Structure formats: C-alpha cells, structure tokens
Amino acid sequence: MGYSLGGEVALRTAIQHPDAVRKLVVVSATFRRDGWYPEIVAQQTQLGPEASEKLKQTQMYQTYTRVAPRPEDWPVLISKLGDMFRKDYDWSNDVREIKLPVLLVFGDADAVRTEHAVQFFELLGGGKKDGGWDGSGMSSARLAILPGLTHYNMISSPELVSTILPFLDSPTH
C-alpha cells in the first residue's frame, strides 16, 4: 500500500516486482503525470530549496522530522520532489499488464482528477461491463471514491481503513 507519491512507489513496485506483491492498494496516486490537477503539477514543479522553509508549516514536515535519519536534509527532499514533478511520466501500458488484485482509493475532492481515477480503474480491467448477479463479470480491480475527503485528510480518515481492510482480508483470486 502506498499513499500519494508512496502510492506511485507501490505501483512501480507491483509493475517491476509482481512476484513480491500479493495485493496492491494505491491511495491518491496517479499512473500518469496529468492525473494530478494542473494547478497541483504547477505548484509541485516549483518545489526547490527556497520552498522548503515555507513547507516547514506542514504535516509532511512534522512527520519527516520524526522519521528521517537526517531531518536537516528537508531542503534536499523538497528539491528532489520538484525535480521529480518536472519530469513527465505515463505508465499506462505497465498498468494494463498488472494481473494481481488492486484497490484504488481516492477522495471525492482529491488532488487527483476523478476522471483519472476512473481511467486507472479501467486500465486494470474494471468498469468494462456489468459485474453480474453473481459477480462473475467483475475484474480483480476495485475502485473507491470516498466522500468528503481530500488528498490532505485522506490518510488520517477512518473511512480509508474501513475500505482497505476488507480488500486486504479477502481471499486472493
């Protein structure tokens, strides 16, 4: 499981090392750079050492200082995030090849475009037809768009946990 950029790391792990992943949960992440709203991409491409000071007011910084082996490297992290966002990516073809069960979770007010969430689901084989009375028409992909959640409050939401656990606890196909 991964959230936001960590969701992209989890996705790449499933793509590059499918034998190491039993199920994949991607929360508020994209498979293509334009999956983020344009203003998010514009904002993130501006990240660099000068932005690191302003970002010390965020929850991300608070978490970073608790877990990072070198909290003083915060400006380095912010610069690397900016470098990453300035590069275009499109993993559509890779996503189509994923065969393991995947749960995609987004907020209805996420930084990821809702249309992108649906495209992601469709690339994984979901949303192609009626699931049928017995569920035999369902793919192994699942899509959850949680109401009243943003990219920023998603990770602390009890609804996120109650959505993910049944998926992880269910038998693998």
Short characterization:
The chain is of the alpha/beta class. It is built from eight helices and four strands; from the N terminus they run βαβαααααβαβα. The longest helix has 12 residues, at 5-16.
Structural commentary:
It is a single chain. This protein is α/β, with parallel strands linked by helices and 173 residues long. It is 42% helix and 14% strand. The chain is built from eight helices and four strands; from the N terminus they run βαβαααααβαβα. It has helices at residues 5-16, 38-45, 49-52, 59-67, 74-85, 92-96, 114-123, 158-169; strands at 2-3, 24-27, 102-109, 141-150. Strands 1-2-3-4 form a four-stranded parallel β-sheet, with helices on both faces. It is globular, with a radius of gyration of 17 Å. The model has no long low-confidence stretch (mean pLDDT 94).
| Helix run count | 8
Assess the beta-strand content as a share of residues.
Answer: 5-15%
The major sheet is characterized as: 4 strands, parallel
The beta-strand count equals 4
Order of helices and strands: EHEHHHHHEHEH
In round numbers, the mean pLDDT is 94
Strand order of the largest sheet: 1-2-3-4
Structural class: alpha/beta
Principal-axis shape: globular
The helix content is 40-55%
Distance between the termini: 18 Å
- Low-pLDDT segments: none
Q: What value does the Rg take, in angstroms? A: 17 Å
